[in-house]
């Protein structure tokens, strides 16, 4: 493989591994803050124990997320130097704001929360974790606005063979970035909800601290159900935005080859990886793709043949990733609805099979999130900045195959070790249960 292929593989590895930690941080910070607020309001010691127990798991995940995130920014200078030269003045702005504002706010108040037990008042201590939750989500906002600009560049001019930002408000109000932000943080909330429900289910199956984990399960079930439903709403707006600014990605997501009107949405598709056009499409909903993308049942959808071959995104990965992501989204609504109903009726322990399902469902929201990123990033190809800069032109020209290979192998070994450490620590303290 050449430097470009290896660099893409390395960035995909590090980005996807880092994103195993981000969504849980986004959602669990909110849940822990809510639990501590309940303790402050009710003085019920169970909520304090919940705050400490779930907060410990949050801290383990947060620490590993920081470590894995640092390597991503280094790669822009090492593996993607041409990209940094071309759009660095734009891309660097949100990254700098994220680091100097969101990250420092987050880390400062996280330190206060960790070391401030019994040193500050309960209200101030609870406020500190809410600030951490706010800063964590604000950090995601700036990163996703940067990615949103790469997906739909606005507010810039090309000058001296470089992209320069001339309208910061256009960048800040980019609808693609905001839709991506809401879609991503809601996905993180679902990850956290299923994480809490899954661990709670494990303890309930063993009749360990039943009241504690029934309450934890109920809180997470409500959080997961609301988030799962909101994702559908945001996803609808996001799909329409994709159809407007990235029609080639829309065609790849639905495997539409011929330009046509009233395009159906197929619920079940059996893809053929050897020939993307030979997918077997079943259970179509007439005209639904046209309606979802353009709010018109007879709207025209551009087919892949309308774009030059070198500007078509990979269809198989985009198409299959989108179908699996949507299918799992429906599953999350179903499971969280059942979880809410059974916890509300206080009947969870009567259904051990359901508790086992919730335990084994913990990885599914993680997988759905990774599939979402595959759809977003693979579906954008061959562009790294859509319509402005191709990925092939963004890679560094001064690094060798050997250098990238060595760093790729090194990252793989390091991340495998960190992943094992994270799973070990999370499993150890999750099984240990709350402090008595």
Give an overview of the whole structure.
The protein is mainly alpha-helical and 436 residues long. Helix content is 71%, strand content 7%. It has helices at 3-18, 22-42, 45-78, 81-115, 122-151, 168-172, 175-205, 210-245, 247-254, 288-294, 315-344, 352-360, 363-378, 401-432, and strands spanning 156-159, 162-165, 260-261, 265-270, 280-285, 300-301, 383-385, 389-390. The protein has a two-stranded antiparallel ribbon. Strands 3-6 form a two-stranded antiparallel ribbon. Helix 1 packs antiparallel against helix 3, helix 5 packs across helix 7 (175-205) and helix 8 (210-245) crosses helix 9. The mean pLDDT is 85.
Report the average pLDDT across residues. 85
Sequence of strands across the biggest β-sheet: 1-2
SSE order, one letter for each helix or strand? HHHHHEEHHHHEEEHEHHHEEH
What is the number of strand segments?
8
Overall shape: globular
Uncertain segments of ≥5 residues (pLDDT<50)? Answer: none
Rg (C-alpha, Å): 23 Å
- End-to-end separation: 56 Å
Secondary-structure class: mainly alpha
């Amino acid at each position: 493989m050449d430097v470009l292929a290896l660099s893409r593989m390395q960035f995909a590895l590090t980005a996807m591994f880092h994103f195993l930690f981000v969504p849980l941080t986004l959602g669990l910070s909110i849940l822990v803050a809510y639990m501590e607020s309940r303790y402050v309001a009710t003085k019920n010691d169970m909520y304090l124990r919940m705050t400490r127990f779930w907060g410990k798991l949050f801290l383990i995940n947060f620490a590993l997320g920081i470590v894995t995130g640092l390597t991503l920014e280094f790669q822009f200078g090492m593996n993607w130097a041409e990209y940094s030269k071309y759009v660095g003045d734009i891309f660097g702005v949100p990254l700098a704001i994220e680091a100097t504002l969101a990250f420092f706010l987050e880390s400062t108040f996280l330190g206060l929360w960790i070391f401030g037990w019994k040193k500050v008042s309960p209200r101030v201590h609870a406020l500190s974790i809410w600030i951490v939750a706010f800063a964590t989500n604000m950090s995601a906002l700036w990163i996703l606005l940067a990615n949103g600009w790469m997906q739909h560049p606005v507010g810039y001019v090309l000058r001296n063979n470089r992209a320069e930002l001339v309208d910061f408000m256009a960048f800040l109000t980019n609808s693609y970035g905001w839709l991506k932000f809401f879609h991503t943080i809601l996905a993180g909330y679902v990850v956290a909800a299923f994480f809490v429900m899954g661990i709670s289910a494990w303890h309930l199956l063993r009749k360990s601290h039943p009241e504690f984990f029934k309450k934890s399960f109920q809180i997470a079930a409500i959080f997961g159900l609301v988030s799962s439903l909101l994702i559908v709403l945001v996803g609808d707006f996001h799909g329409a935005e994709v159809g407007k600014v990235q029609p080639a990605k829309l065609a790849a997501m639905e495997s539409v080859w011929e330009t046509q009107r009233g395009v159906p949405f197929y619920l079940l598709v059996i893809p053929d990886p050897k020939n993307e056009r030979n997918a077997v499409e079943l259970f179509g909903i007439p005209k639904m793709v046209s309606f979802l993308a353009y709010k018109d049942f007879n709207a025209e959808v551009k087919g892949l043949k309308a774009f030059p071959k070198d500007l078509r995104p990979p269809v198989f990965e985009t198409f299959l990733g989108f179908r699996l992501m949507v299918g799992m989204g429906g599953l999350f609504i179903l499971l969280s609805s059942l979880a809410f109903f059974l916890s509300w009726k206080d009947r969870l322990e009567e259904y051990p099979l359901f508790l086992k399902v919730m335990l084994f469902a913990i990885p599914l929201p993680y997988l759905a999130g990774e599939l979402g990123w595959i759809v977003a990033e693979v579906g954008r190809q061959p562009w790294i900045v859509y319509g402005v800069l191709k990925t092939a032109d963004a890679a560094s020209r001064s690094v060798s195959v050997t250098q990238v290979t060595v760093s790729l192998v090194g990252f793989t070994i390091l991340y495998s070790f960190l992943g094992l450490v994270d799973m070990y620590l999370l499993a150890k303290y999750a099984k240990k249960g709350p402090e008595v």
